[in-house]
Amino acid sequence: LKRFQEHCLAAYQSYTAILHAQGKRVGSHTDGDVRSLLGLLRESGLDVCESFSPQPLTDCTFEEAWKAWEGKPLIWGGIPSPLLEESVSEQAYRDQVQRLLETVGNDPVIFGVVDLFLRHNSIERVEYFSWKLENQPI
């Protein structure tokens, strides 16, 4: 936290200001446990945090980041690949999908599988997520 604040935050703010002045949007690859950086990433000027990795991959929950960022930066990711494994019951998976959709409501987000989509992950669960997005009453 202290190192990011001392060595990175000002650079992020400077670079994002330059790019925003050119009409560009700025994103950063932010996988890993960013719980302690939530406030600083909001201050960074980033438009997008790509590959956001919530629990169970990290200690940070999707809801914590969503509340801390209030849509800026935009979350890209949010679906940890362990949720797509058979070791997670179908009901637990569907409950998590429902919580994610209730959390974001109508606000912008780019859902995607973070980490890796592996051979043992369920493509049917990805299809269910897509179906749920299309059919979720908003």
Describe this structure in words.
The radius of gyration is 16 Å and the shape is globular. The chain is built from six helices and four strands. It has helices spanning 2-7, 9-21, 38-43, 62-69, 90-104, 123-135, and strands spanning 27-29, 48-52, 74-80, 110-114. α3 (38-43) links the parallel β1 (27-29) and β2. α5 packs parallel to α6. The protein has a four-stranded parallel sheet with strand order 1-2-3-4, covered by helices on one side. With 138 residues, it is of the alpha/beta class.
- The tally of beta strands, per DSSP, is 4
In helices, the fraction of residues equals 40-55%
The number of distinct helices, counting runs of at least 4 residues, comes to: 6
Report strand order across the widest sheet: 1-2-3-4
Class of secondary structure makeup = alpha/beta
Q: N- to C-terminal separation?
A: 37 Å
Query: Judging from the principal axes of the Cα atoms, what is the shape?
Result: globular
Mean pLDDT: 95
Descriptors:
alpha/beta, 4-stranded parallel β-sheet, 138 residues, 4 strands, globular, 44% helix
Please sum up the structure shown.
The protein is α/β, with parallel strands linked by helices.
What's the helix and strand layout?
Elements: H1 2-7, H2 9-21, E1 27-29, H3 38-43, E2 48-52, H4 62-69, E3 74-80, H5 90-104, E4 110-114, H6 123-135
Parallel strand pairs: 1-2, 2-3, 3-4
Helix pairs in contact: 5-6
